[in-house]
Amino acid sequence: MKLWLAIQLLTLRLSGASLAGAEQARLGAPEAEIPVARSKPNIVFIITDDQDLHLRSLDYLPYVKKHLIDQGLFYKRHYCTTALCCPSRVSLWTGKQAHNTNVTDVNPPYGGYPKFVKQGFNEAYLPVWLQNAGYNTYYTGKLFNAHTVENYNAPHVRGWTGSDFLLDPFTYMYLNATYQRNKDAPVSYEGQHSVDVLAEKALGFLDEAAEEDRPFFLAIAPVAPHSNVEIKNAGPNLNDVFDAEFTAPIPLKRHEHLFKDVKVPRTDNFNPDSPSGANWVRRLPQQSQENVDYNDHFYRQRLRTLQGVDELVDGVFQKLEEHDLLDNTYIFYTTDNGYHIGQHRLQPGKECGFEEDINIPLIVRGPGVPAGEVADVVTTHIDLAPTILDLVGAPIRADFDGDAIPLSKKGLQEAAKFRHEHVTVEYWGFAAAEGDYFDGSRITINNTYKALRIISKTYNFYYSVWCNNEHELYDLRTDPQQLKNLLHADEKAPENVLGLPLTKVVARLDSLLFVLKSCKGQTCVRPWQALHPAGNVQNLHDALAARFDDFYETQQKKVRYDRCELGQILDAEGPQFERDGLVYRHNARWDNWV
């Protein structure tokens, strides 16, 4: 009997999960905890706040280069799917697009920690699943916005063996941070620099984890290089909308003198002479020299503030070596979203669909990960939860919107042939100017849009539809700085793209976005399958076949909004694929065509 049971358990383990476990995963029900030996890999996950890739911040982090870039795998096409802190982090920890979490803002009613709890994710996100897989889990730093000194225990955040969270309204105050450990009362660290406080807490958790006989997951979340934010005129409930003063980040004293001559990279899209983009972005005035000088200062302060994070990274590796854990530990380094300073005439901030805001750092080092190499597969934050569960041998949930990221050389070779080529990008609500220069209001309201990125060896597009129904299309092969919106009336667009009429390419992109803007589960990974169930279309190249012209150009509904809203309200978002979309009804004689 015992032998039979052992064989059954082994069979279920090899298949990924039992039927009951799969049903539990599908429904989000709690799973039985699995005893795990220390031989399982440990994971350290470092997530900065608002760190850029395209402004070259990584060039100024020598320890990140030494320990991670030179010894790990850099994913040059890694994307967040919502360029805003809280929605991006919720998507990362749940493996779901923001349109499926419905956490789309930093504050209630559309976002923040209270919305995360209301949506049921406090019982169904990565640390809970890792604990079920036998892991000890630790977290220090910023978790979510609107996680405050008032609501930190209503309820407490679940899933963490040990935690020490930054709390609003002090999260972004570098010299007046408040942390809250486990279930203790919040503690103020006024006068101490938040990043140094965080480093001490993170290394302490590493010591604690090393003493246990279980593998561990440790998340470290400094606020650097986010703006320094001081809350003004907070209401009786700190979750309410409040006034805030955004200023340049504040570095540690020992780094204040660095990079005195460094400036924002003067790319073609930096404060351009001609307007670019669509909607409110296209109406931005060119920045004055005084404005540009201030933004260069803002940029230097970001680089200086990141030096504390760089030292933290070095401390983590020293501690892993001290405990003889480095060879059995995966280290992830990423950020929640990117950042722009001056590109397209934008003041410091994020929330846009440009590459500066969505194409972000991801570096992974660990057992079997190629050292010092660059991967060009398309990856997203939605893929990180399945990646980590795959690493620890836990079941991959059926409701994930992403796919595990290849970490080995063999995995990368396979991904080059079969991995998806698209990213779903989405945003609701506002855009904020974070520097000292802004025209009238710091906040722009009608910044709601749906978009996609699609990249292969032969094409490279960004396509978006705004809530005012303006459209954007950039061909990044010929316009990497995204200066020429091919769908704007003021631009002279080419008649042909990829050797085909531009209208034919746009029709395919629109139909792909039509699926992605409301997709769920594996449809988000394989959207062409939803349009072509026969399986004869796997990518944009296949979809461009002439026999599909009528299907895409005349039959399929188009992406549109009925109105602009500050959050996800479905009746404002036009037709939905599940209700209004069409499936290609192929002729039998084309069955074997690709």
TrEMBL record:
3-oxoalanine (Cys): residues carrying this PTM: 85
GO process annotations (BP): phenol-containing compound metabolic process
Domain (Sulfatase N-terminal): residue spans on this chain: 41-393
Gene3D superfamilies from the UniProt entry: Alkaline Phosphatase, subunit A (3.40.720.10)
Signal peptide from the UniProt entry: 1-20
Pfam families, per the entry: Sulfatase
EC identifiers of the protein: 3.1.6.1
GO molecular function, one term: glycosaminoglycan binding
Post-translational modification: The conversion to 3-oxoalanine (also known as C-formylglycine, FGly), of a serine or cysteine residue in prokaryotes and of a cysteine residue in eukaryotes, is critical for catalytic activity.
Catalytic activity: an aryl sulfate + H2O = a phenol + sulfate + H(+)
Keywords of this entry: Glycoprotein, Hydrolase, Signal
Domain of life: Eukaryota
Stated family: Belongs to the sulfatase family.
Name this protein carries in UniProt: Arylsulfatase
Record organism: Coniochaeta ligniaria NRRL 30616
